[in-house]
């Protein structure tokens, strides 16, 4: 009983886990810039950048969890290789997870669960993949007595072939196109839009902040790779229309309306909101819920439909509540089916293009999609976002709230001033409010961890971290602060009632 109580005290609220930072490498083309770079070297650079952006020392990381699908020939525990390559000490543990295209998001889920359970404070999670370096292999344990022997492409065998039917993932897209009655032109139009959005985003520098440059050692001198190289500028419908079906002679799925074969890595730093507050970290987002769902492997690309519905239900959201959606584009066919069946607004889906244009390094894509979503949410000051992608026979979906704000609250103006903190309550509010009360409406407290609140006690003054506190009018506190305490901090059943005291 005592052990159970102590364990409960160490556990974090599942809805208080935040993403402190995120970083990714550029996405390399197949046999392109990263052709000879092992996945763990890409992962190391992403991890190091994510830690630097969070202001977290590598020695403070409890564990590193990375998704990776194609590990043949990589050596033992490539996640551990990446962690130590990023500067994590030998005491820091690490492991890799393989859930195909969902590996990067599964790593984040596992990291979140580690923190919620009280087994860790800080986790680095993400994904890494080198499809270019996936080896060919042969079954030669018993030898070859006579004749030729077959080489197996591990990229196809372990990453791109449905294990239940024995056919390429492209056939699952053909199945969806037929069942959802998606024409070739509809798929090509979706692919064209992805290319155009990605091209525009790259030219405008919208990927620059999320990408960490990677230096490739070469005989003719070092080459710095800081931009996605798979995007095809100048793509037109005429170009796409000329491409032949790639998987079925009578089909509609082509190389142009399917995602690429790529290399890359991405990583995020996870902690609970209390840890972020103690470190002075302003999180990129708070994880609200997550869900997985299985579907018939023959139409695996439709997995995001049930997974998204489950995740939104757990969050208490509807599709109409979403400000942004990043949905991995394995194929245009499955992407169109997902958008149609969920009733997503196309204007908020993959606003900077998706995997058809950017690329799809399978073990890293979940973390790449998440990273791109987080930076675009911050750029737009979006409140609610969703990351989702299909995997073989299942799917992931993750709703996020930007900047750690509770979904019951509304933020009307992005604060530009410093934040004051009430350590006892774990609450934040703008520290600078001018004499004209111009920003009075910003006086919103939001939850960092579950706590009890007896709203009968009205605070008269508010602590700030400025030398000359600007908030001192008790009427302002009563009218602005207290109602938000009422909404954001309801009495907690396991904690009972307590006064939400805010004092100088």
Automatic annotation (TrEMBL):
Keyword Transmembrane appears in the UniProt entry: no
CDD domains for the chain: thiolase
GO MF annotations, alphabetized: acetyl-CoA C-acyltransferase activity
Domain Thiolase N-terminal: 17-272
Record-annotated membrane-spanning stretches: none
GO biological process: poly-hydroxybutyrate biosynthetic process; small molecule metabolic process
UniProt domain Thiolase C-terminal: residue ranges: 282-394
Gene3D superfamilies the UniProt entry points to: 3.40.47.10
Keywords: Acyltransferase, PHB biosynthesis, Transferase
Pfam families attached to this UniProt entry: Thiolase_C, Thiolase_N
UniProt cross-references to SUPFAM superfamilies, sorted A to Z: Thiolase-like
Keyword Ribosomal protein among record annotations: no
InterPro entries named in the record: Thiolase, Thiolase-like, Thiolase_acyl_enz_int_AS, Thiolase_C, Thiolase_CS, Thiolase_N
Pathway recorded for this protein: Biopolymer metabolism; poly-(R)-3-hydroxybutanoate biosynthesis; Metabolic intermediate biosynthesis; (R)-mevalonate biosynthesis; (R)-mevalonate from acetyl-CoA: step 1/3
Family statement: Belongs to the thiolase-like superfamily. Thiolase family.
Protein name per UniProt: Beta-ketothiolase
Source organism (scientific name): Brucella melitensis biotype 2 (strain ATCC 23457)
